[in-house]
Amino acid sequence: MPELPNLPDDDAPEPARPAETDAERRRRRARFLRELAEARELRDRVQPRRAKTARLRHQMRMRTFRW
């Protein structure tokens, strides 16, 4: 019978990660927001009609919004 690879135990505690610094968190957040914007641009290019209606709907919401 072949030996099974060492699998992590479910009961074993995870190794403690050092606290994330603010700079790392900001970098990760900036990367996430860039990727999100890129995904939105891609969706708008792929579905132009849906993007147009969403844009018009947003403009209407902004016009009727009371400050």
Number of strands: 0
Largest sheet: none
Q: What fraction of residues sit in β-strands?
A: under 5%
Helical content band: 55-70%
Label the overall shape. elongated
Alpha-beta classification: mainly alpha
Summarize the structure in words.
The protein is mainly α. The chain is built from two helices and no strands. Helix 1 packs across helix 2 (48-64).
Structure, briefly:
With 67 residues, the protein is an all-alpha fold. Helix content is 63%, strand content 0%.
Layout of strands and helices, then pairs:
Blueprint: H1 22-46, H2 48-64
Helix pairs in contact: 1-2
Main attributes of the structure:
single chain, mainly alpha, 2 helices, elongated
